[in-house]
């Protein structure tokens, strides 16, 4: 999987999923590679079930790399993965537990530009 495929896969996944993958660590939910209701985060959607371990949770992608838990096939894309994880966990605006599509699109356009990739936002669904 190359960088463009990663960006496209993650964007399509987050659009379809609609909101962040969360689990409860304390009283406040926190982002997770695998969350409730079979949701997964921007990096978690790239990790195969056979590669996933509960031990990955509460560790960012840089930490996964450092402890040898990030799948080897994703290692060449660590900088892109960090950017995608930060967008999912922190920067994409949310309303009522769902991603705000304009914010999602703006962040993905910026990520694509910063990594020399192309980005075309998915059309908004008609109400």
Structural summary, described in words:
- The structure is a single chain.
- The protein has 127 residues and is mainly alpha-helical.
- The protein has one domain.
- Helix content is 39%, strand content 8%.
- It contains 4 helices and 4 strands, in the order αββααββα.
- It has helices spanning 3-17, 61-66, 78-91, 101-114, and strands spanning 22-24, 29-31, 94-95, 98-99.
- The chain has a two-stranded antiparallel ribbon with strand order 1-2. Strands 3-4 form a two-stranded antiparallel ribbon.
- α1 (3-17) packs antiparallel against α4 (101-114).
- The radius of gyration is 14 Å and the shape is globular.
Structural class: mainly alpha
| Beta strand count | 4
CA radius of gyration is 14 Å
Mean pLDDT: 91
Through-space gap between termini: 34 Å
The total count of helices amounts to 4
Shape: globular
Side-by-side strand order of the widest sheet: 1-2
Low-confidence spans: pLDDT under 50, at least 5 residues?
A: none
Number of domains: 1
What's the story with the biggest beta sheet?
2 strands, antiparallel
Q: What fraction of residues sit in β-strands? A: 5-15%
Query: Can you write the helix and strand succession as a string?
Result: HEEHHEEH
Percent of residues in helices:
25-40%
